[in-house]
Task: inverse folding
């Protein structure tokens, strides 16, 4: 029993794991020399002492945290609209508050690696400065995420944005040339995170051959919304705007495909920076550097994101991969073997559908590429159980 009773002021104690940098001690540290001949009798059970790092079980500490209600001031709520180093900008509907994150929260969420991301719903305490003005806040709580778009980077998982309804996945027909497999990776990540995927092929003003239509039809046939656009020539902008109206949208894709240009065309007042792709490499210049949440005049919001070259979706378990290829789902039960992974098996309904032209070979190739990539991850997980993603 505690003499404090179950009041609001009662601090909560949590036993936290220390963050470990290494799974194994870097090397064995034989800090003590083997015992002298003469001392051997005293050391009946061991003839050598070593000093090792502490075991996992002992590497914990106690973190004491108070419930937000017992902090001075009122608790406000808002949406994280930008993350800038240690600061998070939080929009409470009336104004934007630069906020820091309560240290204890950072510690509690440390395994997460993305304690607060753009789109998070947060509770924060406005902080009053010496002059009595409340200009900053401290984030006390991050609410559970309804959706999230994630990517892996080595052993870490990053959340690109949270609580968005849909991802507009942009590729440009040229400069840089479209990468179909990257679009498919984004679709897998979007599905995994609970977002609807929309395909957008931009720069169709450069498309003399009609490549864009072919690609878009490929995705429309399997049920995705797919839009051809040109931010420069103003094509498809109304359609894209109406798809975004009233929703929260994440716009993703390689650097230089025209994500920010499309948003500027949809809502000219945004004035997002854009820059030409490099002439030599035809690659973008990573003009947008952090994710930002922007309100749309048509209702809803959009998160512009920095372009990324490759998308590692290692957070998806291997045995779930097939579920994220929508056109596979109904066919999988027709495979001869219930554990068919659709690579070499006899009587595979997926491979027959590819041969018959009912599943696009490009999509199947994306599946195979991801299958082998995720197999490597699950092999690693089996060999080294400590190899956690996150
Ligand atoms: N021809 C053509 N050029 C375009 C189009 N849309 C964008 N661009 C050009 O492509 C270049 C890159 O555009 P950005 O909007 O900066 O591309 P981004 O995807 O936001 O790139 P990051 O912020 O680096 O990820 C700019 O020079 C744009 O003018 C288009 O529809 N057609
Ligand atoms: Mg940009
Ligand atoms: Zn199969």
Result:
């Amino acid at each position: 029993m505690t003499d404090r009773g179950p009041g609001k002021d009662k601090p909560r104690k949590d036993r936290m794991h220390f963050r470990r940098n290494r799974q194994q001690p870097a090397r064995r540290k034989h800090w003590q020399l083997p015992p002298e001949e003469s001392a051997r009798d005293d050391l009946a059970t061991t003839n050598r002492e070593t000093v090792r790092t502490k075991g996992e079980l002992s590497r914990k500490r106690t973190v004491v945290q108070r419930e937000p209600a017992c902090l001075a001031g009122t608790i406000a709520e808002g949406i994280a609209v930008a993350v800038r180093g240690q600061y998070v900008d939080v929009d409470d509907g009336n104004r934007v508050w630069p906020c820091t994150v309560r240290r204890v929260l950072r510690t509690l969420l440390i395994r997460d690696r993305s304690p607060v991301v753009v789109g998070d719903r947060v509770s924060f305490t406005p902080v009053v400065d010496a002059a009595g003005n409340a200009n900053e806040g401290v984030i006390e709580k991050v609410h559970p995420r309804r959706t999230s778009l994630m990517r892996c980077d080595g052993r870490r998982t990053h959340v690109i944005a949270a609580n968005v309804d849909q991802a507009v996945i942009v590729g440009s027909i040229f400069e840089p040339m479209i990468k179909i497999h990257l679009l498919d990776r984004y679709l897998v990540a979007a599905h995994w995170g609970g977002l609807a995927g929309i395909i957008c092929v931009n720069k169709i003003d450069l498309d003399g051959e009609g490549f864009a239509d072919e690609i878009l039809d490929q995705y429309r046939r399997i049920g995705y919304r797919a839009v051809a656009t040109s931010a420069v020539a103003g094509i498809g902008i109304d359609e894209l705007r109406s798809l975004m109206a009233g929703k929260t949208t994440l716009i993703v894709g390689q650097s230089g495909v025209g994500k920010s240009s499309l948003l500027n065309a949809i809502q000219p007042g945004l004035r997002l920076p854009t820059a030409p792709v490099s002439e030599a490499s035809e690659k973008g210049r990573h003009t947008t550097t952090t994710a930002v949440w922007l309100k749309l005049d048509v209702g809803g919001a959009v998160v512009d994101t920095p372009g990324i070259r490759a998308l590692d979706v290692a957070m998806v378990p291997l045995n779930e991969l097939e579920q994220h290829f929508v056109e596979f789902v109904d066919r999988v039960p027709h495979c001869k073997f219930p554990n068919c992974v659709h690579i070499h098996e006899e009587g595979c309904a997926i491979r027959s559908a590819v041969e018959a032209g009912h599943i696009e070979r490009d999509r199947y190739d994306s599946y195979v590429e991801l299958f082998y990539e995720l197999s490597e991850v699950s092999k690693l997980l089996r060999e080294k159980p400590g190899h956690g993603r996150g």
